[in-house]
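Batch job 17 of 40 flagged for manual review because the log was empty.
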Amino acid sequence: MTAHVNGVDLFYEKTGEGRPLVMVHGNGEDHTIFDEAVEILKGRFTCYCVDSRGHGQSSPAWELHYADMADDAVALMEALDLSDAIFYGFSDGGIVGLLAAAKCGRISTLIVSGANLNPRGVKLKLRLLFRVLYLLKRDPKIRLMMDEPDIRDEALRLIRAKTLVLAGSRDLVVEKQTRHIAAAIPGAELRILDGEDHGSYIVHNPKIGEIILDFAGRLVTPA
């Protein structure tokens, strides 16, 4: 399915029944990374797995900004009239989730994996690799990670959704920053998954489905 929002066509796949669950992938990926998780989730939730602008089957983009991608996510939820939504974001999708939840009351449960607040939140070796790859490819997706995000504590404190912050113990995001995100969001829960890297428990892995099901399933929806 495709929705036209903010001047771009966003592709999304809708599967299942129940409370809406919006799922957004990481940089350079598409919605299919969640296929295995959706098999677990579709009996409880209506899963909306989205291709971000510049990714997958959505409109191409010659320039990318996280703020625009967050606006896309909010506009998609508005276009589909989703309320009391769960938002799950991995990596870049997690950044999008933080920005969207800070401005959107439609998200009542937020789960983010491997999100960072600024480029320094990514380990140095990877930041250096980004620079080399960008010189070779001039890919706007790489440029995005070099320059952004820039999420301040003031924005995190605006998030009212029940929030779970996840990262692997071997994540490419600096653990100090993951812990900072969880501490700054009111009432957020933090889980550092032992032995996991940035995407090992997410990409084509049902484990993230089990985590989402457990966290969202044990919450009482806010009145």
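Reviewer: the log was empty due to a logging misconfiguration, but the result itself is present. The first helix runs from residue 35 to 41. Unflagging and moving on to job 18.
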